[in-house]
Write a structure and sequence with these properties.
- The protein is mainly beta.
- 8% of the residues lie in helices and 42% in strands.
- It has two helices and 25 strands.
- The strands form six sheets. The protein has a five-stranded mixed sheet, with no helix packed on it. Strands 2-25-24-23 form a four-stranded antiparallel sheet, with no helix packed on it. A four-stranded antiparallel sheet has the order 3-4-5-6, with no helix packed on it.
- The protein starts with 6 loop residues before the first helix and ends with a strand.
Length: 340
């Protein structure tokens, strides 16, 4: 037979339960109310301290591809998205001229990608995924696939046919290691998430200025853990979502005292998780660590040959390189990222 508990034992149990309940209530009382804006300071840390030698401290100019008449890509009329391949191949989009160019560092030569034959053709963003190149055609509202050498393969997504109930205008995209795609939509003011089979799995956000709302989203980048960051240009901020596409936080914003963003656009992430953000009207590239703390902003403070005017996109490459497509100069600038 189980022995009966005495009265002091029952009192002890009740006290323990009561203390636990009070602790739980105390934790809840400090949380933000549902629906409140979660504007994050750029000085706060959302992650732990970075490892030594992983924090960018500056940019050092390595090379400039200027808009010269004897260059194979001349003239550069509408520089847009830019990307690096793992072996160092550099690819950029010229939106106005409707062409994509690649640079092979092994032979130091530029080459032009096939024209897919669609009209109008306005490539605005690009990603290198292994031995294939994905190009976002904003004018044709298509996601196209090419060989790394520039040969056209096929059309991956026709955004007009994704959902007839919506008028999708894709402006930027990114792909993660699992093959998922995230695409910004300038008409619906949303972000579209596609699974590895290129099926639309989720629509995120709606027009507005509160958290989980967008005003002219024009940039997006996956982080190393599968979460992603959206450049919410009209609201002067970034918004971060976790791997399951749940809203996590706002970085910057109109009312953030230390907000460096004027209209953030193209973004990329280095292997340490640091985020590089192009800001065209600010004429700057902002660098944030993996805890979303602003490390530095640079552009007009650089030497004349390296100075930024209207940087639209950035791409992190091998060997610590950073490419910037600057429509104002116009030029493609290659920097080496300096780490501490």
């Amino acid at each position: 037979m189980r022995p009966r508990r005495t009265l002091p034992q029952y009192v002890h149990c009740v006290l323990l339960v009561g203390l636990a309940l009070l602790g739980w209530l105390g934790g809840c009382s400090g949380s933000a109310p549902a629906g409140a804006d979660a504007t994050a300071s750029l000085d706060s840390a959302a992650d732990g301290p970075s490892e030594p030698g992983s924090l960018p401290t500056g940019l050092e100019l390595v090379r400039v591809f200027a808009n010269e008449a004897d260059a194979p890509y001349f003239p550069l009329d509408g520089l847009a998205g830019i990307a690096f391949g793992q072996e160092g191949t550099l690819v950029f989009c010229d939106e106005k001229r409707g062409r994509v160019m690649g640079f092979d560092p092994a032979v130091e030569q530029w080459y032009e990608f096939d024209n897919p034959g669609s009209r109008p053709y306005g490539p605005v963003d690009v990603r290198v995924d292994g031995f294939q190149v994905l190009v976002l055609d904003m004018s044709g509202r298509m996601l196209l696939r090419f060989e790394l050498g520039g040969a056209y393969r096929d059309r991956l997504i026709n955004f007009r046919a994704v959902d007839p109930a919506y008028q999708t205008l894709p402006t930027a995209f990114d792909i993660d290691l699992d093959g998922r795609l995230v695409v910004t939509d300038a008409i619906e003011q949303q972000v579209l998430l596609f699974d590895a089979f290129l099926s639309l799995s989720q629509r995120i956000g709606r027009p507005g200025s509160h958290e989980d709302q967008f005003s002219d989203p024009t940039g997006v980048a996956f982080l190393r853990d599968g979460s992603f960051v959206v450049a919410d240009r009209g609201n002067r901020r970034l918004q971060r979502y976790n791997r399951l596409a749940f809203f996590e936080e706002v970085i910057g914003g109109e009312f953030a005292a230390t907000n460096p963003f004027v209209a953030p656009q193209g973004m990329d992430v280095d292997r340490h998780g640091n985020l590089f953000v192009a800001d065209p009207p600010a004429g700057a590239v902002h660098v944030l660590d993996r805890g979303n703390r602003l490390l530095f902003s640079t552009g007009s403070d650089l030497p004349l040959v390296a100075r930024l005017e209207i940087p639209l996109d950035v791409a992190v490459g091998p060997d610590g390189l950073l490419a910037v497509s600057d429509r104002g100069r116009p030029a493609i600038l290659i920097f080496r990222i300096l780490y501490d």
